[in-house]
Each structure stands twice: as C-alpha cells, then as structure tokens.
Design goal:
There is one protein chain. The protein has one domain: Vaccinia Virus protein VP39 (Rossmann fold, 3-Layer(aba) Sandwich), CATH 3.40.50. The longest helix is centred in the first third of the chain and has 22 residues. Helices cover about 40% and strands about 15% of the residues. It is built from nine helices and eight strands. Helix 2 runs antiparallel to helix 8 and helix 3 runs parallel beside helix 4. The radius of gyration is 17 Å and the shape is globular. The relative contact order is 0.15. Helix 5 links the parallel strand 2 and strand 3. By secondary structure, it is an alpha/beta fold.
Length: about 250
C-alpha cells in the first residue's frame, strides 16, 4: 500500500484496492507518504553531512524506492555503513537486488521483526561498530507496534545498545491531528491488514525520545519539519504525522 501511495510499481491489485479504501477516509495519504520519504532523506543528509554520522540502522525498511538511506548517506560520506532490517522476505529480496553499496562503505540486510531487538543488534553488529555512534531509523514503523508489545521498551533496548552521540529518527502516525479522519483511516486499515496500525498523540510519540536531546525543530507535525512554506506544495497543517530526531547524551 505504501509503495502504491509513493508512486512505486511493486504492488498488486489487492494492495491498490486496499490503499484506495484508506484514501477514501484520508485523501492526504499519498502526500503524507511522500513527506515521510522526504523527512527520511533530510534526516540522513543532516546526520551524515552535518553531524558526522557514518553508521545507520534502518529498521522497517519497506520496499526500495528512490533515495534510499545508503544512497543519501554514501553520497555525503562514501564510507558510510548501513544495515537495513525488515520482517518481510519480499522486501529483503528486493533490497539485496537493488541496494548496492559504494566501494568505500558497506550495506547489509537483516530479516527480523522490530520486536526482536536482540537479533537485530547481533546481526547489525556484523557490519556496524557499536562502540561508535549509530543513527537508528524508525520511519513509519512504530505505529505498527501495539501498546501490548511495549514499543517504548523496544526503543529503549535499541538505544541502550548504541553509544552516546547516537541518534534516534522517528516518524509516526498522529492520533491528535485530524483526529476524526485518522480514526476512520485506522479503522479501515485495520479491517484489511493483519498488521494493525496504532496512531499516537504528540505526548505519546514524545515518550520515545525520553532521555534524548531533540535537535531543532524538535518533535513537530510532519508538514512543519521544513518550516513555513517549505513543505511540499499542497501540504496542510493537518497532515497526521509527527517526526523528530533525538541525540543520545
């Protein structure tokens, strides 16, 4: 569905049908999907180019599209190392075929569920040096972890595994922006998907950054990340998502 919304070609009729049903409740979904991708690109560019990060752990990769994490990071710093993680074997097969590293850097792929932090950290350790800062990317994935599975504990375990100077990058569906439309979107989505979505409030999303220092502009609605007038044309203030980057002290 996400691939369809961002204009990709790796989707089936059933995906498109389900995605269109969600669109009926929330027509802004394609724009949200594009801005989430733009946020990922901007975050990786900032971290690699401005903050000197050379290691990225991208969990919940999704199907490859344009400007993937390693494309952006290795353009800024060719020696960057990236580990992609997804629980869908189809995603990983696409990733291995399409996501090739620069000669100076390295790219690896793990088949693992976000809940299985031990497997992720152990597997990523083959490529990443956990004595040096790592950017942990959780882009549009935490809202697929229900409260019963302790998403805050998952994030804490991941950040406990990386050293000071590491970063946490999150985008997350919002429950308190365009609340009625979001509730209907989630209801329709959850009727069709075996992986339910749990939008969260700003306060709830902020909880993922406990103990971290948010970098400017902080935890903000998706369309506010780039400042007034800088979001994609047509973006309104009610795009139902939050994004932010936190630094481990």
């Amino acid at each position: 569905m996400w691939n369809y919304w961002v204009g990709g070609k790796d989707n089936f009729a059933a995906d498109r049908d389900a995605a269109d049903k969600v669109l009926a409740a929330m027509p802004a979904m394609p724009l949200i999907a594009r801005l989430v991708r733009r946020f990922l690109i901007d975050a990786v560019h900032q971290l690699a180019g401005g903050y000197g990060i050379r290691q990225f752990l991208d969990i919940g990769t999704g199907l490859p599209t344009a400007d993937n994490t390693h494309d952006v990071a290795q353009k800024a710093a060719p020696e960057s190392r990236i580990v992609y993680v997804d629980h869908d074997p189809v995603v990983l097969s696409h990733a291995r075929a399409l996501l090739t590293s620069s000669a100076e850097g390295e790219t690896d792929y793990l088949l693992a569920d976000l809940r299985d932090t031990g497997t992720i950290v152990a597997g990523a350790g083959r490529t990443l040096d956990f004595s040096q800062p790592v950017a942990v990317l959780l882009i549009a994935v935490l809202h697929f972890i229900p409260d019963a599975d302790d998403p805050y504990g998952i994030v804490k375990r991941l950040m406990d595994a990386v050293p000071p100077g590491s970063y946490l990058v999150i985008s997350h569906a919002a429950s308190d922006i365009a609340a009625d439309a979001v509730a209907e979107m989630a209801r329709r989505y959850n009727q069709m998907s075996p992986v339910p979505i749990t939008p969260r409030s700003r306060e709830q999303v902020a909880g993922f950054f406990d103990g971290l220092d948010l970098i400017p502009p902080g935890l903000v609605p998706l369309s506010h990340w780039w400042g007034p007038g800088q979001a994609e044309a047509g973006a309104a203030s009610d795009l139902a998502g939050y994004c932010g980057i936190g630094r481990k002290r």
